Amino acid sequence: MKQKVTSANYTREVLMAKKPVLVEFYAEWCAKCAMMEDVMEELARENDFWMKVCQINIEESKDLSDTFEVEIVPTYVVFWKSKPIAAANGVRDRETLEEMVKEAVMEEQQGGAKKSEYEQ
User: Fold this and answer.
1) What angle do CA 55, 61, 63 make, to 5 degrees?
2) What is the pLDDT of residues 4-21, one digit of tens each?
3) What is the mean pLDDT of the chain?
4) Closest CA to 54 of 29, 19, 30
5) Whether the predicted pLDDT of 119 surpasses 50
6) Domain 3-109 belongs to what architecture?
7) CA 38-106-63 angle, 5° bins
8) Out of 70, 75, 85, 107, which could bridge 65 as a Cys pair, Cβ 3.0 to 4.6 Å?
9) Cα–Cα distance between 115 and 92 in angstroms, integer?
10) What is the pLDDT of residues 90-114, one digit of tens each?
């Protein structure tokens, strides 16, 4: 089941997670975000044993959307071991999002070959 995340529970739900986290930044008014609802729910349900799926409303948690410079919704950010390691945006299918998480984690395990755009 996907988890709604706000500024209040972000640290606990995302940064302190024991498994990789796929965060979708979305907006209620966004038609593409609405199209992704079932995809995100299915992704969460089918992969709960190894990854967590969360959603952050950009208007309710503006500080987080500003931190990650979210200009397009939906935007997806993969977190692992308390840091963002990959990002993408737009409408994506379940398999593409799942593969994005797997590849990002695998890259990190192999020494983090590329830096996330959020790392300095």
Assistant:
1) 125
2) 999 999 999 999 999 999
3) 93
4) 19
5) no
6) 3-Layer(aba) Sandwich (3.40)
7) 55
8) 70
9) 22
10) 999 999 999 999 999 999 988 865 5
